[in-house]
Specification:
Blueprint: H1 6-15, H2 24-30, E1 41-47, E2 61-68, E3 72-73, H3 78-87, E4 109-117, E5 120-128, H4 131-136
Length: 144
């Protein structure tokens, strides 16, 4: 005669209702209904190497993501970046500068962002004059 394994005995007990605590049923009934709340924005940022040939750079290096509503992602200052995007109604080209001073060196930093803002697809490409300007222009939204 074959003796039942511990796993089969446990499965039989679960099917019989022996592993379901009776107190869990009323608590589940009081749980809030799941919501279909989606974030306001999910944006993915890429950086490209500048070209000296005059060709348009192609952003290929993934640098991070930004999620707004709730504010999170890889961005070091997600809350500040999401606030700036909300104030511009999702138009990344309308985000104002933040206070800061940079040198006048020219070391271009091409950046590109793809994603969704309130259900609308977003694609924005921009080249900053140098790494410092990435953090100053556009309120630091592109500053990874």
């Amino acid at each position: 005669m074959r003796t039942p394994s511990f796993a089969s005995a446990l499965a039989t007990l679960a099917l019989a209702g022996g592993l379901v605590p009776t107190a869990a049923t009323p608590a589940a009934a009081d749980a809030p209904a799941p919501t279909d709340k989606r974030p306001d924005a999910v944006l993915h940022f890429f950086r490209a190497e500048p070209t000296l040939t005059g060709q348009a750079p192609v952003a290929h290096e993934y640098v991070g993501s930004l999620i707004c509503g709730p504010d999170s992602g890889d961005h070091p200052r997600a809350k500040e970046a999401c606030t700036a995007i909300r104030q511009a109604s999702g138009h990344l080209d309308r985000i104002p500068r933040r206070e800061g001073t940079c040198t006048l060196e020219y070391r271009p930093v091409p950046m590109e962002v793809f994603g969704v803002w309130k259900g609308t697809p977003v694609h924005h490409a921009r080249t900053f004059g140098n790494p410092c300007l990435v953090g100053v222009e556009a309120a630091g939204v592109f500053d990874f």
